[in-house]
Structure formats: structure tokens, C-alpha cells
Specification:
Length: 253
């Protein structure tokens, strides 16, 4: 049997990168998947390409109103939400000295407020149904510091704090909440990051990873999918590191 047979999943940041790979994994495993993103053009074409069991809803994860309308729409269409993947995120590379408060607020709004609002929007129905799985995408920078990425790292630490605490708040209901902490994934986010100069981000990062390569989005989607599915029925409040052994002991330099 498919691992997400007949589950209804809402995946944020679904227009590209990891979110798109998670949608594909879930459709292949039998779920009805609603991809959500601020990028409607790419989000819709991704959903069209995944067939009848995928659809798209526009969602700005920083907005309460947007969450209300997206969750109402998915619930109206499918009757419930079994799985929420809080994946939308933005990377911001800037040392704290000289950085802008506006950018700080922007990164916190997407990476930290977004998962908070998402969990708040779906949990009442999940708790009432005594069933549901939430997967929050943190980062390996959510479990250790990274020079030049203090604010990004702080938001990803916050995602773990939210995950652990909310998991306890809803534990008796049977709803599960977990986090995934990826190392570098080969996605547009990294391609667009200003790391490594002319060499490019991927080439600059590879030698630092014990595996000597980046993760594919599909490799990380597999772990997100496991946590979304009943295969992880005794896992909650935990963070799952998917980083090619990077955080197991080596330093960043
Ligand atoms: N790529 C990596 O190396 C890496 C490593 C660790 C963690 N992560 C995390 O994985 C997640 C996905 O990253 P990715 O690499 O696929 O990034 P990406 O930039 O390729 O895709 C992110 C998606 O989020 C969407 N998004 C941004 N702001 C939004 C908002 N306000 N509302 C709704 N959607 C919004 C974008 O439109 C985009 O489609 C992020 O949370 C990121 O922090 C990525």
C-alpha cells in the first residue's frame, strides 16, 4: 500500500525546490496534495504536472488572513487536512553588524511566524479528529550556529522550539509534530545564495560536507514523507537531521 494513501496534505513553499519534491513524493505515495506558495505561476504549473491528485492554492505564510483562506479552501475541497508541511523559507546571508532590521523582520516573518501561523490554523481540526502530522522544515543551522547566517539560524532554532513545544501541547490527541534539519540541498535557494563567489554555492559547499555532495531534494523529501506518514507513528517532538554527516562533529571552517 502507498505510504500516504488517501491522506490530504498541504505543503507550503511548493512552487520549487524541496517543497516541489515533497509534493511529488506525496502524490506518488497516494496522497491528495495541495501545494501552497506566493509564487502562483510556478506553483500552478507544478501542480498541473503532478496530475489529478495535486492542486495549488495561493498562500503567503506570513499572513493570518492568507492562512485562514487557504485552510478554508482545502477543507472545503477535501473535508480535512491530515498533513501540514511548513516548508516555505527564505535564506538571508548577512553578518549582524550592519544588517537591516527590515530584512530581519522579513526573514522572521517567513521562517518563524509562518510555521507558527500554519500550525495554529490546522491544529484545532486535527486535535478534534485526534489525528494529523505536521512536519516543520528547520535546517542544520537550527541546531548549531553559522557565521553570516545568525538571523536565518535563529529562525531555524525557533522552528525546533515550536516543534518540541507544540508536540507536547497536542501529544494526548495523537497529533504528531516533528522537524527536519537538512544540510545543503541542491535547490534554487542555494543556487541563488551568494556563497563561494565565481565558483558557485554548490562547488563551494561540497568539500565541507563529509559526503562531498549536496542532498538532492528527493532525498530530503523522503524523510519529510516518512514523518508525514503513519510509518513514524511513535515519533513526535523530534528533529531529524539529514545533512550528509555534516553536524556529526566537523567544524564549518
Ligand atoms: N536549500 C537548502 O540548502 C536548505 C537547507 C536547509 C534547510 N532548507 C529549508 O528548506 C526549505 C525549502 O528550501 P528550498 O531550498 O526549497 O528553497 P527555495 O527558495 O528553492 O524555495 C522556497 C519556496 O518558498 C516560497 N516562499 C517564500 N516566501 C514565501 C511566503 N511568504 N509564503 C509562501 N511561500 C513562500 C518561495 O516562493 C519558494 O517557492 C526552507 O525552509 C529552507 O530554509 C533549505
Amino acid at each position: 500500500m502507498a505510504r500516504l494513501e488517501s491522506k490530504v496534505a498541504l505543503v507550503t513553499g511548493a512552487a520549487r525546490g524541496l517543497g516541489a519534491a515533497v509534493c511529488e513524493w506525496m502524490v506518488n505515495e497516494g496522497a491528495m496534495v495541495v501545494g501552497a506558495d506566493i509564487n502562483s505561476a510556478d506553483g500552478k504549473s507544478l501542480a498541473d504536472g503532478l496530475g489529478d491528485r495535486a492542486s495549488f492554492v495561493e498562500l503567503d505564510v506570513t499572513s493570518e488572513l492568507s492562512w485562514d483562506s487557504a485552510v478554508s479552501e482545502v477543507t472545503r475541497q477535501f473535508g480535512r487536512i491530515d498533513v501540514l508541511v511548513n516548508n516555505a523559507g527564505v535564506l538571508w546571508i548577512a553578518p549582524v553588524i550592519g544588517s537591516s532590521l527590515d530584512d530581519y523582520h522579513r526573514v522572521v516573518a517567513v521562517n518563524q511566524t509562518g510555521p507558527y501561523l500554519g500550525m495554529r490554523a490546522v491544529l484545532p481540526a486535527m486535535v478534534e479528529a485526534k489525528s494529523g502530522s505536521i512536519v516543520n522544515v528547520s535546517s542544520m543551522n537550527g541546531i548549531r550556529g553559522m557565521p553570516g547566517e545568525a538571523v536565518y539560524s535563529a529562525t531555524k532554532h525557533a522552528v525546533i522550539g515550536l516543534t518540541r513545544s507544540v508536540a507536547l501541547e497536542v501529544a494526548e490527541s495523537g497529533v504528531r509534530v516533528n522537524a527536519v534539519c537538512p544540510g545543503p540541498i541542491d535547490t534554487p535557494m542555494l543556487e541563488e545564495a551568494d556563497i563561494g563567489g565565481e565558483e558557485g554555492t554548490a562547488e563551494a559547499l561540497k568539500p565541507l560536507v563529509p559526503f562531498k555532495r549536496l542532498a538532492t531534494p528527493a532525498e530530503v523529501a523522503e524523510v519529510v514523507g516518512f514523518l508525514a506518514s503513519d510509518a513514524s507513528s511513535y515519533c513526535s517532538g523530534a528533529e531529524f537531521v539529514v545533512d550528509g554527516a555534516w553536524t556529526s562533529g566537523l567544524s564549518f571552517s
